[in-house]
Amino acid sequence: MAGLSIENVTKRFGETEVLKGVSLDIADGEFVSLVGPSGCGKSTLLRIIAGLETQGAGSVRIGGTPVEDQRAADRNLSMVFQSYALYPHLTVGENIAVPLRMRRLNGVQRLPLVGGLMPGTRAVAREIGQHVADAATMLEIGHLLDRKPGQLSGGQRQRVALGRALVRDPAAFLLDEPLSNLDAKLRVQTRAEIAQLHRRLAATFVYVTHDQVEAMTMSDRIAVMMGGRILQCAPPDVVYEDPDRIEVAEFIGSPKINILPLEILPDGRLSLQDRALDLAVVEGARGVASLGLRPEALRLKSGDSPLRGRVVHSENLGSEMFVQIDVADLQERITLRATPEQRGALALGTPVALDFDLHKALIFDADGARIRRLRHLNAAASEVA
Ligand SMILES: Nc1ncnc2c1ncn2[C@@H]1O[C@H](COP(=O)(O)OP(=O)(O)OP(=O)(O)O)[C@@H](O)[C@H]1O
Ligand SMILES: [Mg+2]
Q1: 172-176 and 204-208 beta bridge pairing
Q2: 0.70 exceeded by the pTM?
């Protein structure tokens, strides 16, 4: 096992600069998820780490050793690609066994007929067979071991690719959306298996996913990538509750964070809808700013509030309910998290007033950078209005 260190890596394809200086240090045994919009360069970064693509500038180290002059095969990384890259002429069982056979058997031992006569081959082959069977059972493809990839569904092929990656004992695992083609049940199950495997092996994982729940539940840290850069890399609760930038706040969290226009008055006080809040910035920015409020930071209130509107849509998920409110003067919809018991007060068309906890307010300057230094003007009352 080994940590990974990526320093100032750039990459361009023709005119397009895909990676604009990406740096990321991943500790030995750490599980880091890479998330970001489609096309932001996640797979490209993974392929550079793996040695399947060369960077423009910058360096990649595995276990402290620069790997620029190491071929992909020598980097001892186990990868699952977005496209599964199975050997079409081999069966499922043989596909999973490939990396084990490559490592445990020498060239002669791997020969189809002669190999079996070489001393020790059979014992190793039996062990490999057991390993493959265990992985296949875990991934529920045990009954498919004799089929060829062409006879499998997309999700089944993905599990074979995953099985092939997981039977190895590499320096690190690089997984590119390994569960994207699985149905919901298998996805949850495989997610748990990978998390357990990570704990058991204490292996280094770099895990690309579009699934927020996967990123939030499996990772030690989440790296949010956008526009060719990593905007923030931090533990899941930190990227959610304490984002560095507005893009991170908007990318992480479902339903999305509410972003409302805010003004910073000349004395630093924040003003929402022409109403001064009991909150001020300590220094710096004045004028245009943004207020980020997670759906759970909002509450219904009675009486006056700068946030008033009508219920336009609601989604009751059973354990919780998300309600969209059209705020008249804002031309924005706000999402509020409520409990299903509150649905009587939240029927379509109902006028409502909202309140929020100032301590949960995320303030961003005109440039999208988070403003963290804030002063609460009325320490006792953290409520608005
Ligand atoms: N071989 C290539 N030649 C030219 N452009 C490429 C090549 N590979 C990737 N790109 C471009 O680089 C950008 C990043 O691609 P990449 O596959 O890394 O994105 P991604 O973040 O993995 O996206 P997704 O989430 O959709 O998988 C994209 O705009 C893509 O079109
Ligand atoms: Mg990709």
Answers
A1: parallel
A2: yes
